[in-house]
# Entry
Amino acid sequence: MRKLWGRLTSVNVQKAVWGLDEAGLVYERIDAGGAFGIVSDPAYRALNPNGLVPTLEEDGFVLWESNAILRYLAATCPALGLPEDPRARAHVDQWLDWQATTFTPAMRDAFWQLFRAPEPDRALIAQSLKNTEAQAAILDAHLADRDYVVGDRFAIADIALGCAAHRWLNLPAERVERPALRRWYERIAARPGAAKALGEPIG
Ligand SMILES: N[C@@H](CCC(=O)N[C@@H](CS)C(=O)NCC(=O)O)C(=O)O
# Structure
């Protein structure tokens, strides 16, 4: 039995859902985190001591950290196979790390202030949008002559960055139009495997 814990409004849960759906795996998703609670329950903490989502559970095997979940799915499911070439794999890792350490953190303040703060801090939003524009420009330039983030096939780097781009492109804010980023996002968001992950309002 395979279970995924986490609410669909979490960008990190979206990555895991997209990975599972692309891989064609059967799983039960249990809403957890945010208003659903559960993440502070001792039983959940025993699975994931961080009290965060997502957590994947497969017959006693437990895995947290959304990009680790994506790497695991890619390692075990041919449909999401990692490239064999070590350099191409390294590029997949590079972009996964960049998503987690750079792109998503840059937009965090804007997202929280726009969706969660009772009195949004406009200066914080402006700074976060400015920081994210700089990262979006990097991704846009990278995608200028590519259909996918690494090589010529869809891979987990597209999933991680696709979920981050989904949030970025749907923030209720003004953005610089980035044609290559937009084209790539629309291409991968149209995949059947993305339907559930990207199907909810971002907030
Ligand atoms: N690095 C972790 C971050 C996980 C994380 O921060 N999850 C957020 C949602 S995106 C969370 O669980 N927040 C608390 C909650 O939803 O209750 C990952 O990539 O899985």
